[in-house]
Amino acid sequence: MDAIMDKNGVLTVISGFSGVGKGTLVKKLLEKYPDVYALSISATTRSPRPGEENGREYYFITKRSFKGLIRRGKLYEHAEYNGNFYGTPVEPVDRMRAEGKNVILEIEVQGGLQIKERFPDTFLLFVVPPDAKTLKARLTGRGTETSEQIRGRLRRAVEEAAVIPDYDDILVNGNLDESVEEMHRMISEGARSGADLRELSVKLEKDLKTLTEEDET
Ligand code: 5GP
């Protein structure tokens, strides 16, 4: 039994501000190391965006089905984000871990903390931008959101920055290829950044708040 348990892959939670590029990082990590990692596909009640496919980006389900999954204990965690529900299905995660894969959960912070409580060995990694200004520039540069939506995302980022000290480590997403390698070293070799998470959290919270308020005047 122990021998089988030992082969189980590790769980890693990747969270980060909207626009920080965590989705791209995770995608590249999986492309580069397909035998090492597997991605958990979440269930959500939000509608698919253009180009998204059921079962690839998410399992797109109704609120009623989502509540059913919660009731039957089929989700490891769930959270509400922007009026929609998101959750991590139990069975695929168990199956992928039993296959020895390191399973990545790309989820927001409330869910991340629930996973840590349930599986204390989970590695909680928070992806941050090189600085607050870069985040705002990336959000603005997408060109897909109104300035009110950008402000909303920045305000949420302020709240999320406060949770950084509850995470195990941060990864600064500057250069994509370097960040992918750094992420791999952190997950598979236990490399750590050595960053002072409390200090970084306070600074980001302050800088993001200033940037949010700049536009409101
Ligand atoms: P989006 O709608 O932009 O795809 O995702 C919105 C937020 O929900 C992102 O921060 C994403 O990481 C998070 N998210 C995606 N799947 C899950 C999940 O299963 N559980 C939780 N707690 N958050 C999730």
Verbal overview:
With 217 residues, the protein is α/β, with parallel strands linked by helices. The protein has a domain at 5-40 and 103-216: P-loop containing nucleotide triphosphate hydrolases (Rossmann fold, 3-Layer(aba) Sandwich), CATH 3.40.50.300. The chain is 47% helix and 20% strand. The protein has nine helices and nine strands. A five-stranded parallel β-sheet has the order 2-7-1-8-9. It has a four-stranded mixed β-sheet with strand order 4-3-6-5. A hairpin with a 2-residue loop joins β5 and β6 (84-89). The radius of gyration is 17 Å and the shape is globular. It starts with a helix and ends with a helix. The model is unreliable at 1-5 (pLDDT under 50). The chain binds guanosine-5'-monophosphate. Guanosine-5'-monophosphate is lined by residues 42, 46, 77, 79, 81, 86-88, 106-108, 110-111.
> From N to C, what is the helix and strand string?
HEHEEEHEEHEHEHHEHH
Give the CATH architecture of the domain at 5-40 and 103-216: 3-Layer(aba) Sandwich
How do the strands line up in the largest sheet? 2-7-1-8-9
What small molecules does this complex bind? guanosine-5'-monophosphate
Task: Let me know the largest β-sheet.
Answer: 5 strands, parallel
Strand content: 15-25%
Q: How many β strands by DSSP?
A: 9
